[in-house]
Amino acid sequence: GLIGFNLMSTGLWAMAYYITQMRQSRQLKRLSATPMRRSHFLAAQLLARFSFLVVEVPVVVLFAWLIFGVEVVGSPISLAFVILLGAAAFSALGLLAATRARTVESASGIINLLLLPMTVLSGVFFSASRFPDASQPFIQALPLTALNEALRAIYNEGASLLTLGPEVGLLLAWTVVPFLLALRLFRWQ
Predict the structure, then answer these.
(1) pLDDT of amino acid 17
(2) Is 189's pLDDT higher than 80?
(3) Cα 44 from chain centroid?
(4) Greatest distance between any 2 Cα atoms in the chain
(5) Residues 44, 45, 46, 49: is their CA dihedral positive or negative?
(6) Which of 95, 108, 81 is closest to 165 using CA atoms?
(7) How far apart are CA 130 and CA 168, in angstroms?
(8) C-alpha span between 29 and 39 (Å, rounded)
(9) Which of 25, 74, 98, 179 could disulfide-pair with 154, CB 3.0 to 4.6 Å?
(10) Is 102 in contact with 22 (CB distance < 8 Å)?
(11) What pLDDT band is residue 167 in, cutting at 50, 70 and 90?
């Protein structure tokens, strides 16, 4: 849950805050004069986010192992794949949040609107199954729920990627759709 929460928080905040700050300081407007395409700029932002994973995730995994004796039961490759996919999904959502925000304050509001429901509902601090049955379809459609369930299945039960088809598919959808929407809605100014 904490790995998922960390990926969500940093993916959303890093993307939305940075791009909105660039827009507010008119750096994006300057980039519009270059031959760089919007798709290249947004893809570069997404890929740059992955560089933080090298430090971000191992610290949590190492801490859990050293302090609490929690070991990864599943494949480290499967775990790394799900982590990268989760980071991509939340980075794409962060890009989408930043497409129209003019100020850092408005970006902050959008991020909090996305972050709060997922933090409460997606099983970060307590089980998502405790919520009423009527809310379960909505909760199961959230990217953080899919990420947390996939991470727990690999981490605790040794699940393979083949058994995590629904979670991986949902995370792929939460990566591709927001990225394509961000690409369509993004403006340099």
Answers:
(1) 87
(2) no
(3) 16
(4) 53
(5) positive
(6) 81
(7) 23
(8) 15
(9) 74
(10) no
(11) very high
CA distance 131 to 108: 27
Q: Looking at residues 45-74, what average pLDDT do you find? A: 86
pTM of the predicted model over 0.70: yes
**Mind giving me the DSSP string for the chain?**
-HHHHHHHHHHHHHHHHHHHHHHHTTHHHHHTTSS--HHHHHHHHHHHHHHHHHHHHHHHHHHHHHHH-----S-HHHHHHHHHHHHHHHHHHHHHHHTT--SHHHHHHHHHHHHHHHHHHTTSSS-GGGS-GGGHHHHHTSHHHHHHHHHHIIIII---GGGGHHHHHHHHHHHHHHHHHHHHH----
Least confident of 36-40, 49-53, 128-132: 49-53
What are the tokens at 186? 């993004």
For 130, the token pair is: 């405790």
Q: Sorting pLDDT into bands at 50, 70 and 90, what band is 175? A: very high
Give CA–CA dist 147/86, Å, rounded.
Answer: 6
Quote the Cα angle for 91-93-96, to 5°. 110
> Whose structure tokens read 């904490």?
2
